[in-house]
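Revision sheet: structure tokens.
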Amino acid sequence: MKPAVNGYKWRLVISYEGTKYAGWQYQVSPPTVQCFLEKALNCATKLERKDLCLVGAGRTDAGVHALGQVAHFVTPFNYGSLDGIHAALNGILPDDIRVREISPAVPEFHARFSAEGKTYHYKIYNDAVMDPMQRHFAYHSACKLNADVMREAAKHFVGIHNFSAFANTSNSDRVRNPVKSIFRFDVVEMGALLQLEVEGSGFLYRQVRNMLEGKHFLLISFQVCWHRKIEGSLLNMSCLLHLTGFVL
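Predicted:
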């Protein structure tokens, strides 16, 4: 394999149950997924954090789970076989974090900037009594939600839009283009579970959370309120949030 500028580059696909973690981004306390992964890589490779240059495809908030988050790291040496380091990492990591895949990456690959799309899933347990097995994975709404109305609202997000109204400001973020492309926004019914699936080319800081969440879930109105455009931003926010059954 051709070495990268700073060594050989390796691609990881990671899954984690994020209940105990303060998201992906590195910090020592409270603990994050990146912190534990870097410690495991340090043990397995004997390299320091500054030499590993571990980068994730994106940040996640506290308590968020991942099925297949991509990351990369570099080493000054090559591996003839990756079976050993793969087993070592999963042996060191806590049970709620797993490296699903490890593979060589070309020097040009970057976990964040090479991403062609990202998908977020939000789950709502829509029943009078919450299933305790879902308590870490779904929001509980005892009020009956109207999935058809939610689908109608979701259509207005799909396409290329200016999402400035749905982004939080972060001092650590570089300036980004607020125009993003949403490929699909599906509302999937699975018994008592409603799964909201949002796929796009990329997202602004907390964009998807702000699109889907508010302080409280409401009983959805059966009357559809149509959106209207306002100067430079996507939608009349209060109209859309009531349409989807959420309020800020």
